[in-house]
């Protein structure tokens, strides 16, 4: 896929429309980060937009921490959305070269409006494909993909591109929904049944990649695994918030699909993992 091809991200269509209509709760929940939340104590979640926004910030920070980011680095955030992770890094670190990449120009327009450099940092938002990175070899210290790799056409091509642009010793950090190996055939069958419901709201999603597949991919490309952290339990308070949002908007079929995803998460059938690798 190239930036000029049709992009199937209906939930971003919905989010941008909600923002334009002045839905303040939606802006609070998804105006900065567009991903699940992380709660150190899931029982403390209160379901409020403010609580969710903080949890989303927490998740972004945990992925960045898995990548061992520090001052003075050049960091590439692939699938950067509205620039939330770039904004977080901009607020936390100094002398950074921060680059957000996204295939959807609309998301980048909002990111450029909201995120401005501070602390001697530079910020650039680039329209492009994560599987065809428009950057030179050995030019980046860290590559991130926060809850977006399942939208990419190929995890293999993305890993190869991340390896290419990373400097020696550079690190890649991602988070993803990862199914249990033993149940993958059943999940693939169920996924085919649910695909119309999932796709109508979340767009094209591939959650069939197992941890074994990631390990083999890392080995093939040349990455050394660093972090494998299961944070499934810490993300579960996300689901009631998203389901309520879908019900409020009349997206009944999407709410049902999200309810199935919640059930799979609560039973540990699909796990939410943070993964990081070193070149």
Descriptive tags:
seven-stranded mixed sheet; 279 residues; 7 strands
- Provide the helix percentage: 40-55%
How much β-strand is present in the residues? Answer: 15-25%
Tell me the Rg in angstroms.
Answer: 18 Å
Task: Give the overall shape.
Answer: globular
Order of strands across the main sheet: 3-2-1-4-5-7-6
Sequence stretches where pLDDT stays below 50 over 5 or more residues: 1-5
Oligomer: single chain
Mean pLDDT over the residues: 91
Tally of DSSP β-strands = 7
- Separation, N- and C-terminal Cα atoms: 26 Å
Structure description:
It is a single chain. This protein has a seven-stranded mixed beta sheet with strand order 3-2-1-4-5-7-6, sandwiched between helices. It is of the alpha/beta class and 279 residues long. It has eleven helices and seven strands. The protein is globular and about 45 Å long.
């Amino acid at each position: 896929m190239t930036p000029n091809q049709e992009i199937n991200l209906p939930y971003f269509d919905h989010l941008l429309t909600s923002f334009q209509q002045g839905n303040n709760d939606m802006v609070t929940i998804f105006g900065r980060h567009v991903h699940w939340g992380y709660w150190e104590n899931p029982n403390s979640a209160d379901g409020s937009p403010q609580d969710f926004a903080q949890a989303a910030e927490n998740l972004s920070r945990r992925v960045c921490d898995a990548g061992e980011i520090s001052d003075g680095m050049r960091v590439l955030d692939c699938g950067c959305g509205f620039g939330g992770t770039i904004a977080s890094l901009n607020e936390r670190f100094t002398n950074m070269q921060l680059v957000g990449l996204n295939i959807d120009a609309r998301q980048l327009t909002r990111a450029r409006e909201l995120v401005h450099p501070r602390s001697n940092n530079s910020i650039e938002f680039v329209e492009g494909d994560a599987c065809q990175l428009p950057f030179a070899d050995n030019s980046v210290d860290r590559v991130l993909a926060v809850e977006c790799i399942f939208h990419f056409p190929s995890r293999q091509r993305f890993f190869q591109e991340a390896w290419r642009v990373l400097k020696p010793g550079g690190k890649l950090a991602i988070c993803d929904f990862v199914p249990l190996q033993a149940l993958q055939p059943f999940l693939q069958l169920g996924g085919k049944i649910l695909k119309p419901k999932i796709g109508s709201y979340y767009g094209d999603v591939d959650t069939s990649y197992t941890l074994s597949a990631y390990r083999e991919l890392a080995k093939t490309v040349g990455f050394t695994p660093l972090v494998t952290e299961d944070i499934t339990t810490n993300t579960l308070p996300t689901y009631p918030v998203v389901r309520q949002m879908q019900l409020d908007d009349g997206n009944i079929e999407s709410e049902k699909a999200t309810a199935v995803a919640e059930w799979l998460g609560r039973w540990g059938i699909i796990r939410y993992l943070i993964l990081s690798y070193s070149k």
